[in-house]
Amino acid sequence: MPVPETTSEAPTPAASPLVTRLVPYIGAVITVVAAAFAVDLHLKLGLYLFSEQGLAFILAMSLAIIYLAVPARRGAARTRVPWFDVMFAVLAFGSAAWLAIRYPVLAQQFFYRPTETFAVSVVVIPLTIEALRRTAGWSLVTLLILFILYALFGDLVPGTLQGRPMEFTKLIPYLGIDKVALFGLSMYICCIVVVMYIFMGQLLIRTGGSEWFTQLAAALMGRTRGGAAKIAVVASAMFGSISGNAVSNVASTGVLTIPLMRQAGFPRKVAGAFEAIASTGGQITPPVMGAAGFLMAEFLQIPYTDVVLAALVPAALYYIAAFAQADLEAARNRIAPLPEDRIPPIRQVLRDGWFFPLPFVVLVLALFYWNRTPEESALWAAATIVAVSLIFGFQGRRVSLRDIVEAAKSTGRSSVDIVVIGAMAGMVIGLIDVSGLGFGVTFLLVAIGEGNLLGLMLLTAIICIIVGMGMPTAALYILVAVLVTPPLVNVGVDPLAAHLFVLYFGLMSMITPPVALAAYAASNIAESRPLETALTGIRLAWPAYVVPFMFALTPTLILKGSPLEVTVAVGTAAVGIWLASAGFIGFFFRPMRAPSRFGFVVGGLALLVPSGAFQGALYLDLIGLVLAGGFVGWEYVMARKDRPPPADIA
């Protein structure tokens, strides 16, 4: 199964000779520059460069690729590059490259060079916005323009959200030069960290690793009830954490897993929904978490290991629900395991590619034991992929120099959209900071939450879903973390829990109507109705809408508390999710009627609430245990009654 080549919709090289020959090599240079800055090669060579210079150079090449490869009208065919796009490509590359060269001077003498800072910024920023429109569409551009208008005219807004006045001639240089804006943290994560993980995924494609992981999932899950859906869950979870975008994961893995589920007997909307939720869940799965985990550690100034440990249980609960419902959905619809001829022998699979987990072992060791940066760890893992392929090979195939070069070309070419989205997110952060909007939103939401924490969390969840519509994981997390996390922290929510809370609900925009891009992409492959697929996805991924409220109320579900408290909270939550999932599906030992379904859902949800969430929550757990236990016993007894007696043997 292929790893996604893109983090969202990547530009497709046109038929023009200029594009087909030039763009791949520009993409390869992007990958090389990102790798060089990932290991601080310039410092090792005695070159003292600002990291912003590397980011500006990557932006220069990304803008050039977009104007050469992506037509002004989205979806239009391109057989030649029009003169104005050649001009835009040259202008964008030249101005951003000028920023890369002159950045040390412009940053240190910002107030003494107003003409130069304004001139270069007033060229780079509009060209970046137009590149964003071509790759990501109008939604993100509209959002960015609204923030710019607020920064310019926010002082005219009455009440709590009134902003500080800002002149256009001062705002534009600030956005283009300041390291809190265009070349801030979000740009660094997107240009260096995410690019390295895309490169790692590209190498996995070319060495056969993605194919091996699919075979392994089929060998392990193929003979189980609902095995086709479980294969989709496992495969999409593994590659979703690397891709950084749920939609691209659906597009790449779904073309194999959705037909597999359809052939097994799953309804179209269910097959599409399972792929959508599995791909979305990959973004919250350690160790990579779609690069959002690295950002979270930077925001909170904590070790990345703390983020990974906190994310383990919520991600596990998410996939427990997915597995439970795959199993119970298959039982309800009498879906058989995969045919034997579709299941590879596990011994043969392990013999062919036992070494493919080694790069992930190196990744984890580099992150947590050797204390390497996320980007350097990814490069180590990529190097390990090359090494194991050269030494062992997969089914007679070994990686070649050409494969590595092609992986570098594809990485750079498919990274340009996330680069401009990172630029957009950086500008939004800068605009929020300079306008005072962040303070106003925090003050307003804290006022709402002073007497009603649950109401504040519900409002925050809705805002996150709206803000996150159509955005890749890293970009959406940056926006919601800056805008709506501070109010939760100010009213007493654990900071790490607050950041995980907004990340979860930002990601839920991928399966929540009206946008639900991951669900709609899956419905296109499954040939099902988009809205039905999205609504089915909500039912299958229901824990993602509930669990964040639980760990925001008490952090035991993110492993904060005594060992006994954590063990009880995690155990009851896992049982509660399984039972509530059975209630939603309508099957446990047998098809359930309405009273039993209601009892399973209520009992399961009660067990899901940690005992320390609020006063009296322990009694709620006990009530849930009694209620669920009673209905489980009832269903077991009735299932035995319904079972036909064994035939007499003469």
Overview of the structural elements:
It is a single chain. The protein is an all-alpha fold and 650 residues long. Among the domains are: 225-336 and 449-559, no CATH class; 561-642. 72% of the residues lie in helices and 0% in strands. It contains 28 helices and no strands. Helix 9 (209-221) packs antiparallel against helix 10 (227-243), helix 13 packs parallel to helix 21 and helix 14 (304-332) runs parallel beside helix 26 (563-585). The longest helix has 35 residues, at 401-435. It is globular and about 85 Å long. 56% of the residues are buried. Mean pLDDT is 83; it is low at 1-14.
At a glance:
This protein has 650 residues and is mainly alpha-helical. Among the domains are: 225-336 and 449-559, no CATH class; 561-642.
- Distance linking N and C termini: 53 Å
* Major beta sheet summary: none
Helical residues, percent: over 70%
Strand content: under 5%
Features:
single chain, 650 residues, mainly alpha, 0% strand, globular, disordered N terminus
